[in-house]
Amino acid sequence: MGEYHGYTGIVAEVLRKAGVKPGDLVRIRRGDGAEFEGVLMPRYSLSPGPYVVVKLRNGYNVGVRVDPSTSIERVGEVPRGKPGEPMPLVEGPLKPPRERVMIVGAGGTVASRIDYETGAVKPYLSVDELSLSVPELWRYADIDAMQVFQILSEDMKPSMWSRIVDEVARAIERGYDGVVVTHGTDTMAYTAAALAFAFHKGLPVPVALTGAQRSSDRPSSDAAFNLTAAVLTAARAPFAEVVVVMHGETGDSYALAHRGVRVKKMHSSRRDAFQSVNAPPLAKVLPYEGKIEMIDQRYRERGREELVVENGFHERVALIKHFPGDIASVIDALVDKGFKGIVIEGTGFGHVSSDAIKSLERAREEGVAVAIVTQTIFGRVNLNVYSTGRMMLAAGVIPLEDMTAEAAYAKLSWALARAESLEEVRRIMLTNLAGEMSGRHHLRLYTHTGRW
Amino acid sequence: MPGLDYKALGVKVGLEIHQQLDTTHKLFCECPAELTDDEGDVFLRMLRPTRSELGDVDPAALFEWRRGRMYRYHAPPSHTCLVEADEEPPHPINREAVAIALGVAMALRSTIVDEIHVMRKTVIDGSNTSGFQRTAIVALGGAIEVGGKTVPIETIVVEEDAARKLGEQGRIVDYKLDRLGIPLIEIATAPVIETPEEAKRVALAIGRLLRLTGKVKRGLGTIRQDLNVSIRGGAKTEIKGVQRLELIPKVVENEVLRQVRLLEIKDELRRRGLTEEALREVRPVDLTGLLRASKSRVIKRALKSGGKVLGVKLPLMHGILGREVMPGRRFGGEVADYARFWAGVAGIIHSDELPGYGITEEEIERIAEVLGVVRGRDAFVLVADSEEKARKAIDVVIWRVKMALEGVPEETRAALEDGTTRYMRPRPGSARMYPETDIPPQPVTQDLLEEAKRYVPKPPDAVVKELVERYGLSKDLAEAVVDDERFRVIVEALERFKGSLEPSYVAGFFIVTLRGLRGEGLDTDSIPDEKLVEVLEAVAKGEVAREAAESIAGYLAKNPEASVDEAVEALGLRKMGREEVEKVLEEIVAQLRDEILKRGERAMGLVMGRAMAKLRGRADGRLVAEVAREKIREVLARRG
Ligand SMILES: [Zn+2]
Which positions 393-452 of A are in contact with B (Cβ < 8 Å)? Predict the structure, then answer.
């Protein structure tokens, strides 16, 4: 017995026998005589239990238990509405300024439509759809849009970074004044760092990554706010850097533009989940007012550089974290599995337990690059203070100063794709390419916990 | 309303009772399910219309968004978390709330569903941070007996309460999030109620049933009634937010009257020969030049801020806008409400209310001339605002007048304090309802059903009988207890003071004493239950006299900040101990020394008279008598 529109087991059997399918108007009679009439809904797979779901006339869904005494009959069919001309949110034509911005879709749903019958949400990323759903974008630029791929954030791979880099580069070559990349939020920080390294030698316009913490099918979605802020940044920012533009606080007041190499998702659900680590955000972006206020005055200026693309990422890089147990075996296993680079989030200053030093030595012998960041997120790695650290240095690990784990991972993947030797990997990793490291932390940088 | 024959008019009323449940936490998070005075963090949000698979958007949502509405949320950390702030997905549905609702469903013999699916109902006025209300059907069908009639129940729903509106400032609306997420049970009856009084009786019966679960909140705002009212030939009007039960008959009456009057207006307009075509031809005329020198404040204000005055002729409409559709409300007011809602203007001026608004007879004459209005036959409407808004308002006015040709439009109306209603928004077409995919369906298991049985309210008659038997209350008093909002508090007090206070005194305190105070205009409803119990506690312990309970409660009603102790102190009602009584009597005996020496023990009456004048209500009479006798004897003994 296979699955039937998400139903399994006895329910699938009963529905098949009754010859009913989702969308049919059905009457269900329970063993106790109770009757339910409504439209048969598909069932989300993975929700178990012998229940059929019907949408009642009043719009509510209810689940009815199916057992051998249940009868289901088809009493009609509900005509499905046909998509009409979508209703625009603003009246009258859009009158964009002369700036042109390309929106590159790489996941994340910034525009979508909801099927009120089933609750299914389908993303729509086309210029037409955006002009109807987020017409505010045209206040700041004439918009073009294209989709590279539509994936879940967690399914992102380094090879996909390359495809995004290619699309962004193409848009810049075609003369757009800025590029926006829509992306799922969970792995956005990795992609942002990867793009920053690929464009670190020459970028004439801003590249702004953005996404949504509340999906765009809800009235309270942050998608339109973030996208508008990102378009504003792409069209008008004075800088030409790869940034993440997302909510700056829980309300819809301002967004922040974070350097791609410094940003980290610090909360699982809040709108203002993204924060700059060990660095101030680059700028404050006010999408309603149409204003950008610089926070960091040192930046790569728009229009100064010619485009230089260094694309390509190595796939066999791992990112692990020290834990009180047998870390040595994990390092060994990664080396055995053929990984060429390992980023380790060490404790505090960056340590792994002293019994793992041998594994680090072996990694070096096998030509595997091991780089160290700290699992405390904030602060700097220092392997000179304690003896374990010094032993790690002797075993050849690369201490990555105050780099985020995400930036370290993307950078190691990028470095391994072009370096010929471990020595060269080390040299690249320790060179500040895109602002991913800094020697100076002032007191106000560590404010992420708020102040009581 | 005298003269309305409800049966003949084919009145049909359905009720939707919303009652807050008294659960330990909210429906989709662990915050306390109660209101608070605490202040909180403030943040600003917007809500956007979402697009359906068919490409359309909800017109009401679109409308609010185009108005540039922003919502300012106040989130006290003691009573709200990331869920209310829409910064975290909802947690699984509160089992206790579901169990209570299932208990009610059992009492109403409703059909309980096997799996509860939480839905999202689009609400875009900002009262839900998410832009939708989470709501779930737990049971269908069933019935309640009221006055020998069986009133069918349609649905029993558990849903989250909305945020509290604090006010509006321009395009910003302020909401407090403490109320958002408090569990509500919604019980909807079939539209079978035929008179205003019957509507109240049914609401009462459902309210009592809910109270008898022992798990509902009390006080203003904890129960809200929505009414669906229609008459034959009229239309279904949804009236939202009747907070007081006593208001229900008045609201129904007024709505029936309104529909009757709108149908009369329809007939009258048709009799006069007004047609849609005629209305299609009318055009707004710019009267700004004509009224530039007008003394009218409304017009002056609009012109000063660069606005215009537009006028439009409404053919054959003389006298119609001035017709009363419900007490204190004219048809012109109905039209103005549409203009306010849809065009955002402050109001309209119509010819049936002129001269007025500082517009002179001479000006009216000239307006009529320019608009081609024949006075005594046609009517006209003026709008003074920015040109864009004024034009839109005129379109809306014509649109609403066209509806009048059809009779009663389908509307959602808001109930006002005086029992009248006003236009709120169009009735939503097919409910914008879709699954809440963040919350897994909740199977109604045997365990859950067992839990629900605990909350099944007993039939009211059985509860009355129990109170009579267990506490010896009179039947009348027991019935009053069952009907009282504080039912649960009273029953707990009866049990607690069993043996220390007579049950009739305890019940009487809540029913008779408090009712008396209410009669004097005191707000006893807002006295916290715990304070009332404390008053009884003081009586039981002998700290205050039985008779003092009334004045203490009165004081508490007048001084919401005061504690029971402070009330007792302020009223000087603390019962005196022996020592204090002795001190008072020593004084009296000293003053009356000569009389006592003259009369001997017979001076007792005199001494007691003086003593009780000072101590009544403050000391126990028997104690006073005892001390008095002692002191008299002391005086007499010293003489000897
Ligand atoms: Zn909460």
Answer: none
